[in-house]
Design a protein that fits this description.
The protein is α+β, with helices and mostly antiparallel strands. Helices cover about 20% and strands about 40% of the residues. The strands form two sheets. Strands 5-2-1-8 form a four-stranded mixed sheet, with no helix packed on it. The longest helix is centred in the N-terminal third of the chain and has 21 residues.
Length: about 110
Amino acid sequence: MTFKKSFKTSFKTLSGAALLLSSSTAFAHFPLMHCAFIGETIECEAGYSDGSKAIDSRVSMFDYNDNLIAKEKTDKRSIATFKKTVEEFYIVFDSGHESPVEVDSVEITEK
């Protein structure tokens, strides 16, 4: 095998690998979260659009002045639990990639 032929083969292999890696972004999944009032608690299930769970992920609760009220980590079921509060709030799941998910207190319903 000549150097020129070997170079072409290597270039094709690397180009194919780069194409596969770059195409994975086209299949990227985005974060999702659903929250519900259950008695005196708020349960938020975080995950991704591909159906995978967000285990040990940080979920934070803020008041409308952007003050942190509480922060929790999701459990092995991908659920973070907060105590119900009387003030208005929003809950954020920031997966570290894509845009964070925010759920406003007015969007949360009883389960």
